[in-house]
Design a protein that fits this description.
Layout lengths: L2 E2 L11 H12 L17 H13 L7 E4 L2 H10 L6 E5 L4 H14 L2 E5 L9 H7 L4 E7 L11 H11 L2 E5 L11 H4 L3 E5 L11 E5 L37 H17 L1 H19 L5 E4 L11 E5 L4 H12 L1 E2 L1 E3 L6 H5 L6 E4 L7 H20 L1
Parallel strand pairs: 1-11, 3-4, 3-5, 5-6, 6-7
Antiparallel strand pairs: 2-8, 7-8, 9-10, 10-13, 12-13
Helix pairs in contact: 1-8, 2-8, 3-4, 9-12, 10-12
Amino acid sequence: MTIYLNNAASSFPKPPEVHEAIAECLATAPSHEGRTGLERKAGHATWECRENLARLFHAPDPANIVLTSGATEALNLAILGSSLHGHVVTTAIEHNSVLRPLKKLQDARGITLTVVPCDANGWVDAESIAAAVREDTTAIVVNHCSNVTGAILDIGGIARIASDRGVLSIVDASQSAGIVPIDVQESGVDLLAFAGHKSLYGIPGVGGLYLREPFRLEPLKVGGTGVRSDLIEQPRMMPMYYEAGTPNTPGIAALDAGVRFVLDHGVDEIRRRVRRLIAHLSEELRQVPEVIVHAPRAAADSACVLSLNVADLPCEEAGYMIEESFGIAVRTGLHCAPLIHRFIGSAPAGSIRVSPSCFTTDQEIDRFLDAVKTIATVGCAA
């Protein structure tokens, strides 16, 4: 591949600082001192990572940020660790990392589930979510940004609905963290899960969960913490209560470097750059009669993702042509979000997803556009 446009799956390239942080971590003798991140001192990499994440998300206490193996573990902790019962509200744009834990609760606890539909662009308005809340609702679980269309939901408005109704708000920020401004205090979300390897520029195998109330959840796992080994129960100290086992120190070092990159360059500036590329893609693709674009028309309503289909061509076939004939990496299929495609018109096979990053050049976007236009002209005529 000569051009990488699959950053919604995992970002590439990584900033040089990330490579350097991993190399330094691996070249340094492991230290067990304060390995859970409890040591609040300058120079302690794990704690500094929490501090930088707290700065990014405007979290009041870095100790309320739990580091996990990724957004999937974070969402499992948020959903399965909650005492959810009765009724739960979610949306049609959710990733399987939300849908499958909720399905597990349906089977194990007998919860009922309302899936709020989205529009043709993947947008779900807060009023529709409010209308779905019932007297027995215990949680609202929503995606901040669709990983199929890029549509951004109003998590502040949704969290206020949850708070007013006395229910838990759980937000999946896998696609938005690092490219859409997030203020957990202003929005009032209870739990916010994020991936480290997408727009935070870390590596796979690390992510996290912000908890507004530290001990609201039951841990998914218990075990060694490196301190308080005299206790046979899991120590109730943040964040070790949720972080049993040896931490992924190279992944944490990479995440810290990636978050610092985002903080140094600014979320607004990164978003401005990517939003301009998405706007150019959307405008050009909508002028091709054979191409169907699945994304909000206004780039301001989208993050870093756009999906499309080329009429009469299966998305896997068109994606294969883009990769093999033009050397451009994209993603095809359902994108682990099976419900949204019925609403945006890409069911049952899914769509071609293109997702640039702040490192993507105008020339790379133009080459992708040329590839799609060629395929639309030649492929559909064949």
